[in-house]
Amino acid sequence: MTAWTRRHCVCTEVRNLDYEEAAAALKIRADWLRDNIGKLPHIKFGQQPAVFCHCDLRLILAMHTAMPARAQEVLNAAAEQAAPIPAETPTAPAYQSARPAGARGRRAVAQV
């Protein structure tokens, strides 16, 4: 992934949070964000301090979420039960079998 790609961001209205606001939202120390900024998703504009959008915060939470094996088993079982049975997708005829429509005759134009 390149540095300019933000595929994880789905914000419709971006509200950039500074270190203190992001730390308050995550309920952690702002110093921890400053110390680990190189390992965390963030936005950087030139020489300005880094800022975070809410998608960055969700990704930081996911990066630092511990999931015990038993909890993962329960989640997988719930997902299997809730997964809908996929409907059969109708197949379209092959592109090679497509033929142009027949010629259309000219309509006689009524003269007045």
Task: Give a quick summary of the entry.
This protein has 112 residues and is mainly α. The protein is built from 4 helices and no strands.
Write the SSE topology:
Blueprint: H1 19-26, H2 30-35, H3 54-63, H4 69-82
Multimer state = single chain
Mean pLDDT: 81
Unreliably modeled segments: none
Provide the gyration radius in Å. Answer: 27 Å
Categorize the overall geometry: elongated
The main pleated sheet reads as: none
Q: Class by helix and strand content?
A: mainly alpha
Distance between the termini: 69 Å
- The percentage helix is 25-40%
How many strands appear in the DSSP assignment?
Answer: 0
- What fraction of residues sit in β-strands? under 5%
Please trace the helix and strand order, writing H or E for each element. Answer: HHHH
Query: Helix count?
Result: 4
Characterization of this structure:
The chain has 112 residues and is mostly helical. It is built from four helices and no strands. The radius of gyration is 27 Å and the shape is elongated. The chain starts with 18 loop residues before the first helix and ends in a 30-residue tail after the last helix. The model has no long low-confidence stretch (mean pLDDT 81).
